[in-house]
Amino acid sequence: MNLHIQQKKFWEDKRRSKRRLPNHPVVRAFVSPKINFILENLKLSKKTTLLDVGCGNGFFTYHLGKLCNVTGLDFSEQMLKINPHPRLVNGDAKNLPFNNNSFDIVFCSNLLHHLENPEITIREMKRVAKNYVILSEPNRNNPLMFLFGLIKKEERKSLNFTKRYLNKICKNINLQPIKALLSGFIYPNKTSDNKILLSFLKKLDFNNPLGSYVTIIYKKQ
């Protein structure tokens, strides 16, 4: 089965509607370090325009929307139905329905490893970005992420993803890396919401080569 069709079928499944909401404590714990990382390196205001590509049910859209002017895009109507953000577009990440330089920042999280050719989407993100592209993906070098990629077919392409892999793609399309964060041992739909466990995992959320996620800010050249 074509990967695009396979992913479309997976995300349109109504069982996906049972995913945690963006304000769930585990989701907040997953999202917050990455947003704090962005805030440490870029200035955001209500005038800053940001496109969240592959926004899903709004894990980042919801929280970034409190800081800047966010538009969310996803190919899954099912996911958009449960995304609480007001500005949402049903569209294809490989052919973004926006003009060149439409947004100050273009962001995506946990999208690229679901695509047959992530470079196509990164090129599109660069095209519609004025200044910055931010990519956040699983880190293959984390043992749990590596195991998850082996076991779950929908996550199989995550086995490609490292800081080096992302930088190699982005170098090909003249995106300059500004800052990178490798961190996190909290999984938004899997980690227990036990307060003691969550508090412990938050303390581990610092820059670490074996962190579960790699987040990189790129400057458009």
Task: Count up the domains.
Answer: 1
Q: Strands across the major sheet, in which order?
A: 3-2-1-4-5-7-6
Mean pLDDT: 92
Under the CATH scheme, which architecture would be assigned?
3-Layer(aba) Sandwich
Helix content: 25-40%
Strand content: 15-25%
For the biggest sheet, the summary is: 7 strands, mixed
Order of helices and strands: HHEHEHEEHEHHEHE
Based on CA atoms alone, the radius of gyration comes out at 16 Å
CATH superfamily: Vaccinia Virus protein VP39
Overall SS class: alpha/beta
What is the CATH topology assignment? Rossmann fold
What overall geometry do the principal axes of the alpha carbons give? globular
Separation, N- and C-terminal Cα atoms: 37 Å
Total number of beta strands: 7
CATH class (first level) name: Alpha Beta
Quickly count the helices: 8
Low-confidence stretches: none
Could you describe the 3D structure shown?
The protein is built from 8 helices and 7 strands; from the N terminus they run ααβαβαββαβααβαβ. The mean pLDDT is 92. It is globular. Helix 4 (77-81) links the parallel strand 2 (69-74) and strand 3 (88-90). 35% of the residues lie in helices and 22% in strands. The chain has a single domain, classed as 3-Layer(aba) Sandwich (Rossmann fold). With 221 residues, it is α/β, with parallel strands linked by helices.
